[in-house]
Amino acid sequence: MNSQYNLPESLQDIHASLTASSRQTRTASLFSGIPPERIGLKGEYDYDGLAKRVASAINQQFSESETQSVRILQRGAVVVLEGKESKVAYAHLLQMAGIAMAMDGAVGVEVNATTVFPPYSSQLVCALPLACA
Fold first, then answer.
1. Considering the domain boundaries, does residue 133 fall inside one?
2. Which domain range does residue 49 map to?
């Protein structure tokens, strides 16, 4: 090794030092920002940030009576819409899912445990004939 310039002795040393440096840079960049699903309403870190941003966007688009019994949660980067609502039309539920999917950080939408009832009981289809009698 040349002590005046402090040069490495071989190409293997260069490769080893570049690999270690590259690994540190990749690890640092991996943790340098907030994951998109954890960004809150004002750009701050928020564990439930995606759900709050989706709820805010849905509340701007729909009236309170249309959304009052639909809960908006998140599981990682998946938005979960759940509830039991007789006033929410299927089209509204699809619109809510579309709003959620358009949100930065969302990778999927679950319409889990959400029951949409038709507005009139005459439109209900009876699955068990004896129960409808």
1. no
2. 36-118
Task: Output the six-digit token pair for 35.
Answer: 């994951």
14 residue type, one letter: I
Q: Is the same domain home to 76 and 13?
A: no
Strand order in the sheet with 78-85: 70-75, 78-85, 108-116
d(CA 96, CA 20) in angstroms, rounded, equals 46
- Tell me the range of 25-29, 76-80, 120-124 where mean pLDDT is highest: 76-80
Whether 26 and 44 share a structural domain: no
Domain shared by 21 and 40, yes or no: no
pTM above 0.90, yes or no: no
Burial of 119 (0-12, 13-18, 19+ CB in 10 A): exposed
pLDDT in tens, 16-58: 666 665 555 555 555 679 999 999 999 999 999 999 999 999 9
